[in-house]
Amino acid sequence: MSANGGSVASTWAKVAALVDSLYRVAYAMLKKRLKLMNEPVPKHPEARAHHFVPQCWLAGFTDTGQKDGRLWVTDFKRQKQWPTSPPNAGHRKDFYRIDEPDTDPLVFENAFGDIETQTGPVFRSLYNSPHYPTGKELETLLWFAAVQFMRVPAFRQWILGIAESIHLVMVSKALESPETWKQALVKAGIPTDEPAAAYERMVEFQQRVLKTGEYTMEANTAWYLARGFQGAANTVFPLLLKRYWGMLHSPSGSFIGSDNPVGMDGPKGQLSGFKCADVILFPVNRYILLVGTNEPVKQPFVNRKLIARYNTFTMLAATEQLYSHEPNFGWLDENSKYQESWELFSKKRIVSAEPPAITLALAKPRG
Fold first, then answer.
1. What is the pLDDT along the chain (367 residues), one digit of tens a residue?
2. What is the model's pTM?
């Protein structure tokens, strides 16, 4: 991880790095788990198109349920829509490739492939014969969802923002007095007489950062993925298992997917996480949407408007792209009016609507 800025910013980043040991621990754990510590780097042709939404999942939003089926991509950033197939959608070049000594650069890409191999048969079964997942199927899907949350582009911006906030707090604490700053410099191995590390200059820099936001952080791919894997295994997956999971079934297969498929919703204006979110959503395919809550809820009546409501949430959570089996799909605008043309969608209008245009509140708990 690195910081953008001059020598003062560099000093700031070095001190902040004292609290950033999670990457090293998580990466060592992953290497040990995959038995790569002392094994030679395998030689094989590198896959360059890395799917941040797997083909086995995308197949569930095609017209046939197969990887060669027709898939419509709606791209908000490009303001375009086109037909394609899962192999040609939802990927970026070298998105999971890492550059670490004595380590297969595709270690993470291969790990994702192993997860997809385990999950693929479950996705096919639920598409061919939509049903509430069995115990083992549900566990497999929730592990997939936990990992899926950290492998998409949106995760990288989110986790970097959290790390940046933590670093700002930790450095601010170190700058409480000249004495605490000197102690921080010693721990970081920075000479206390380093001009760029002078206490007065760092306080001035801190105040400028807080006012202008000019301090930014950068991280390499391994940092993102190591943090993500550890978070998925130790935090996200256990929290998903604790929830009550219901299933919404669309007989017509009208649910859509996105490039950020694991969504959370809670009270407006409050941050939602896997522990506190009122509801967590995961569209398994165009027929099945999993709904996770903290308390048991009644199964809602599924009709065209309810499907459109949940499709709207998928659209709001998307980073850039939506995936569907046909070009037109149902959603609700800021007036809760049913629409089918994606070109009329406005995230800004829906989010700013008062009262909220889209709520995912389910029926009150039983009992």
1. 555 544 544 544 444 444 344 344 444 545 544 444 444 545 556 778 999 999 999 999 999 999 999 999 999 999 999 999 999 999 999 999 998 888 888 989 999 999 999 999 999 999 999 999 999 999 999 999 999 999 999 988 888 777 777 777 777 788 888 888 888 778 877 777 777 678 887 777 777 766 566 666 678 898 889 889 999 999 999 999 999 999 999 999 999 999 999 999 877 666 678 988 999 999 999 999 999 999 998 888 999 999 999 999 999 999 999 999 999 999 999 999 999 999 999 999 998 887 666 665 444 443 3
2. 0.80
Closest CA to 323 of 48, 63, 49: 63
Task: Tell me phi and psi for residue 342, to 5 degrees.
Answer: -65, -25
Residues 181, 182, 186, 191, Cα dihedral to 10°: 110
Residue type at position 211: K
Q: Which long-range contacts (CB under 8 A, 24 or more apart) does 270-278 make?
A: 274/235, 274/236, 274/239, 274/240, 275/239, 278/360, 278/361
Cβ proximity of 30 and 224 under 8 Å: no
Tokens coding 91? 């990927």
- What's the half-sphere exposure (Cβ side, CA atoms, 13 Å) at 3? 22
> Could you tell me the two tokens for 231?
């978070």
With H, G, I as helix, E, B as strand and everything else as coil, classify residue 249: strand
Neighbouring CB atoms inside 10 A of 2's CB total 13
**Reduced to 3 states, what is the DSSP secondary structure of residue 107?**
helix
Q: In whole angstroms, give the CA distance from residue 244 to residue 232.
A: 19
For residues 312 and 263, the answer to whether their CB atoms sit within 8 Å is no
Nearest to 310 by CA among 248, 222, 260, 366: 248
CB 250 within 8 Å of CB 287: yes
DSSP state of 365: B
**Whole-number Å distance between alpha carbons of 257 and 12:** 41
CA–CA distance, 337 with 348 (Å, rounded to integer): 16
The pair of three-digit structure tokens given for residue 160, joined into one six-digit string: 């970097």
Contacts of 303 (CB under 8 A, 6+ apart): none
Distance of alpha carbon 359 from the chain centroid:
21
Distance of alpha carbon 27 from the chain centroid: 19
